[in-house]
Design goal:
The chain contains 17 helices and 16 strands. Helix 9 packs antiparallel against helix 10, helix 15 runs parallel beside helix 16 (about 395-415) and helix 16 (about 395-415) runs parallel beside helix 17 (about 460-470). The longest helix is centred in the middle third of the chain and has 25 residues, at about 200-225. The two termini are about 25 Å apart. With about 475 residues, the protein is an alpha/beta fold.
Length: about 475
């Protein structure tokens, strides 16, 4: 791949940023194992819940599956070369549980060897490996024993974490236990939109608690094997506002949605327990039945940082209003809530509103409402209908505008005192976008799935310049 002029390190041409970020700010990009690796039956890997879910007719757009994805399992060295060319300082990836411990059973040497090679390749390229232990690919064999509704799964997760840390703990720069447990629990067990495709509110509440328990148990494993390596958890956090702040029904709706999306996860991790109002809200769905006395202290294990994944914000009403849409089944106990769109907001190809100010607000809400902990934007990105021009160029100006506006929002948070230490774009590569299959492209790098040819988009070159400047020009 040739180096685009925008990719030249700014330090070499004497430029400086009009909006600089702090020295040492981490610039990265992120992926997830099931979304990029492919090779779903290679070298002893067995089914995850996503392999099985993707085979269900109608579950995934186009009937797409996790093969070939971006074939990262075989092409990782090419991808690391792309990262190096773009100047990435860090690569956030996840490990596939069914590759490391197939069926949740004994460790698989071939699966572990892949992550050995990947981590060593990153280090040789001068790129920090940021590893996530769980990004939704639960071994199907464990789902058949109850999955995350079964408390035992949290202990199996700790066992898997022990295998990973024993092998890689000396070389990974930073660890995350879970990625977006809200999605795994609520979309997977209540909404039926994600694997395993269940629609049971009590199951979703049990899964939420056991995921958080697994987080706490994994933190203990990380501390034992890599006591000097920073570790945390990654949550998708979205600010929630009432449609009419003077309407008590709308204010109540905002409280409940904020509780389910944000405080249900932030409070146990950073405050040592579930919020009282959510304990009341979720009592009919069995929260009290799954919490044991020692759990709060385990879940509240000290984290060194918190990852914030941000894509959108929410405005909600406790009643139907013009243009609103009722909450889906993933919103446990909130079926009367309506989501109110902003007709003036631009939208991505996923239909998500582009609301960069919400990123600033999310970061400020954590900064002001919880104990001080360093924050990283561990995911932020957008799908757009990229077009490959005749000359091969991909002029994704919409994604460049998205990146620019959200980095400015991140800079606003820094200016307001937030201890923000890094930004990871989602995603490095076009990939399998869960229930959307290959229909949505989030990548900085375009992937032709038929040939697996990689082509950096205009946004990749733009981001490379930001990295070189350590800020916005």
């Amino acid at each position: 791949m040739s180096v685009h002029p925008d990719s030249v390190r700014a330090a070499e041409i004497g430029e400086s940023a009009a909006l600089p970020f702090p020295p040492g700010f981490v610039w990265g990009a992120a992926t997830a194992a099931f979304q990029v690796e492919g090779a779903t039956t290679a070298d002893g890997r067995t089914d995850s819940v996503w392999d099985v879910f993707a085979r269900r007719p109608g579950a995934v757009v186009g009937g797409d599956t996790g093969d070939p994805a971006a074939d990262h399992y075989r092409r990782y060295s090419e991808d690391v070369d792309l990262m190096r060319t773009l100047g990435l300082g860090a690569y956030r990836f996840s490990l596939a549980w069914p590759r490391v411990r197939p069926d949740g059973g004994a460790p698989n040497p071939a699966g572990l060897a892949f992550y050995d090679r990947l981590v060593d390749c990153l280090l040789e390229a001068g790129i920090q490996p940021w590893a996530t232990l769980y990004h939704w690919d639960l071994p199907q064999a464990l789902e058949e024993r109850g999955g995350w509704t079964n408390r035992d799964t949290a202990y199996r997760f700790a066992e898997y974490s022990e295998t990973v840390l024993a092998r890689l703990g000396d070389r990974v720069a930073s660890w995350s236990t879970l990625n977006e447990p809200w999605c795994a629990a609520m979309l997977g067990y209540a909404g039926g939109i994600h694997a395993p495709g269940r629609t049971d509110h009590r199951a979703a509440v049990a899964a939420t608690h056991h995921l958080l328990l697994g987080h706490g148990l994994a933190m203990d494993v990380i501390r034992r094997h890599a006591p000097d390596v920073p570790a945390g958890i990654t949550l998708n956090l979205y600010p929630v506002a009432p449609h009419d702040p003077a309407n008590v029904t709308d204010v109540s709706a905002a409280r409940r949605i904020d509780g389910l999306q944000n405080r249900l996860f932030l409070d146990p991790v950073l405050r040592g327990g579930y919020p009282d109002d959510l304990v009341t809200d979720l009592e009919p769905f069995g929260l009290g039945d799954v919490v044991e006395p020692e759990d709060s202290a385990i879940i509240a294990a000290h984290v060194d940082w918190l990852g914030v994944n941000y894509y959108r914000d929410y405005r909600v009403a406790g009643r139907p209003v013009p243009g609103s849409e009722p909450a889906g089944p993933e919103w446990v106990g909130a079926g009367d809530v309506h989501f109110v769109p902003d007709p003036a907001a631009p939208r991505t190809d996923s239909g998500w509103e582009v609301q960069p100010a919400g990123l600033t607000e999310s970061l400020l809400q954590v900064h002001r409402g919880y104990r001080r902990v360093p924050l990283y934007i561990t995911e932020n990105g957008a799908a757009y209908p990229d077009v490959v021009a005749d000359g091969g160029d991909i002029v994704d100006t919409d994604r460049v505008a998205f990146l620019d506006s959200h980095l400015r929002a991140a800079h606003d948070a820094l200016a307001a005192g937030v201890d923000l230490r890094g930004y990871f774009y989602w995603s490095l590569l076009d990939n399998f976008e869960w229930a959307e299959g290959y229909a949505k492209r989030f990548g900085l790098i375009h992937v032709d799935y038929a040939t697996q040819r990689r082509t950096p988009k205009r946004s990749a070159h733009w981001y490379a310049r930001v990295i070189g400047l350590n800020g916005l020009g």
